Amino acid sequence: MAKTIGFGILGAGLIAPFHAKAVRDTNGGKLIAVCDMARERADKLAAEFKVKVYYSLDEMLQDPEIDVVNIALPNHLHHAAVLKCAAAGKHVLTEKPPAMSLKETDEMIAACKIAGVKFGCTVQCRVRKSIQAMKKAVDSGRFGKLLHADAIMKWYRSTEYYHSDAWRMSRKSGAGVTVQQAFHYIDLLQYLVGPARQVQARMTNLAHPGIALEDTLMAFVDFGCGAQGVVQASTALWPGTDVRIEINGENGTAIMAGEKMLTWKFRDERPEDAEIRSYGSTSQATGARGAADLGHADHRVVIQDMVDAINENREVVIPVASVRPTLEIVLAMYRSAALAQPVTLPVQDDESIWAWKT
Ligand SMILES: NC(=O)c1ccc[n+]([C@@H]2O[C@H](COP(=O)([O-])OP(=O)(O)OC[C@H]3O[C@@H](n4cnc5c(N)ncnc54)[C@H](O)[C@@H]3O)[C@@H](O)[C@H]2O)c1
After folding, report:
1. For the whole model, what pTM was predicted?
2. What is the distance in A from the centroid of ligand 1 to the CA of 248?
3. How far is the CA of 168 from the centre of ligand 1 (A)?
4. Between 3.65.10.10, 3.30.360.10, 3.40.50.360, 1.10.10.10, what CATH number should domain 126-289+324-355 receive?
5. Measuring CA to CA, which residue among 265, 298, 261 is closest to residue 281?
6. Cα dihedral: 179, 171, 206, 288 (round 10)
7. 53 pocket-lining for ligand 1 (C-beta < 6 Å)
8. Which of 52, 245, 251, 339 lies in the 20 to 30 Å Cα band around 193?
């Protein structure tokens, strides 16, 4: 019989309630506790979901009811927390980006492997039905030769959003549209058409004076498979419109807007295509207008998968190792913007990219 899997959420900030609701809505998962060093935040979330409260990870890791820790900390703090969870024998689901360097990412993957715990990442857009249909079509060769893979994210975040916490204004802590918001959609391109060969990026600040970050990314990407692509991502464009993922091959075109399949057209029309065109809903919020302008359905799928992976003793569907190439593309984009020239992958970690001023 399947065991009930206990979850503890580390970090009770903006994304934490989405994790809490998602755990609540799983079959076989149970939220046990939340933890935040900001006591009032931890208390508020714990009271809302009627669970235990902790104020330090060390304390929460002592709790035998917790099987999985969901890491919902600022990006630069994921690494240390994941290592502690692995050492305590807890499975880990980390928010994106998994860490701020390839070295840290590799250390976390190795620690989880040695500890024999699962290590997943909530790049939850991958589980959307529209994306899964695109992935299946790419993998089965239905597009033919892949020609273009583009992500267009014209979003809006207010100046108040950036000022709401110190880490949101620090590139080294993981802020900036490229590593923070666009990470999801760069990840989708990487997931769908494979790793990149070369990137050329330009980063600017269009609408957030006083914040030393890029709020806008424009990048050309050459993928290893031969396709080329554009990533256009911004948090400067009020009021924010649905993100678009566009894949073009010699035999077909697929476009997702938000989570909705907007275009699904292949030279060889198949009976299942009519249903695929109905995938997704235009009414489902996907983050365009604010950080909390989001549903929790995709997180629920990722968390359900963690429950099932533990019970079935299998790998999770989004292991962190599969997200590492996305981080590599992002790091290459920062390097390219800093140098104002194309950068060929693979890249090494380079601390100077965080100090570079937009
Ligand atoms: N998957 C998504 O769609 C999505 C959306 C938003 C944010 N995120 C990710 O979620 C993570 C958190 O983002 P957020 O917007 O919720 O941040 P946040 O700043 O709102 O929340 C982070 C919380 O962590 C707490 N914290 C910091 N250090 C701590 C420590 N050592 N011990 C305990 N608590 C600590 C802070 O007090 C804060 O409450 C980030 O990695 C971000 O990229 C993902």
Report:
1. 0.98
2. 35
3. 10
4. 3.30.360.10
5. 261
6. 40
7. no
8. 339
